[in-house]
Amino acid sequence: MLTLTPDERRALRAQAHPLKPVVMIAQNGLTAAVLKEIELALKSHELIKVRVFDAEREQRDAWLNEACEALGAAAVQRIGKILVLYRPNPELHKAAEAPKTVRKTPAKAGAKASAERPGKPVPTRSTPGKPVANRRGVARNSTKPRSRPAR
Questions:
Q1: Distance CA 52, CA 23 (A)
Q2: CA-to-CA distance for 116 and 81, rounded, in angstroms?
Q3: What domains does the chain contain, in order, with CATH numbers?
Q4: What distance in Å separates the CA atoms of residue 91 and residue 76, rounded to the nearest whole number?
């Protein structure tokens, strides 16, 4: 079973937060087919969530430990019926580290200065103007305050 430092565990919990469960453990429990699906998911994603249905807390803890030992993974977190598992896949990191050939094109004469500096964001909207007094967001003909009719 893989062990994680508290800092690694914290970072993995943050990465796992938006994930949806990809494997479900139902009434038959942690079978060989479920372990195979967890294996495939760990191979392609590294970090996965598993949802457990119809089990008590002790049973969920036992299944989490059993899956981690059988697959060589680390238990990141268990909250309620959601189990989070992690196993690094070096093949995924090799593909990400492969150098990509970038074709540089010369800047055109009419190109903006921000296009030459890719580090700065390009603004997409103009800033809103200052509010005009006595105009509640609706254009009116006069800027004078409206007088109320006498009762």
A1: 9
A2: 50
A3: 6-93 (3.30.110.60)
A4: 21
pLDDT digits 0-9 by tens, 90-134: 887 776 676 666 666 655 555 555 445 566 666 565 556 666 666
Q: DSSP E strands: which ranges in 53-150?
A: 74-79, 82-86
Q: Record the pTM.
A: 0.62
How do residues 56-79 score in pLDDT, each as one tens digit? 999 999 999 999 999 999 999 999
Alpha helices (H) in the chain, listed in sequence order: 6-16, 32-45, 57-71, 90-97, 113-116
CA torsion through residues 90, 61, 18, 23, sign: positive
Instruction: Report how far apart, in Å, the C-alpha atoms of 92 and of each of 34, 73, 98, 100 are.
Output: 23, 16, 10, 15
Q: How far apart are CA 42 and CA 87, in angstroms?
A: 6
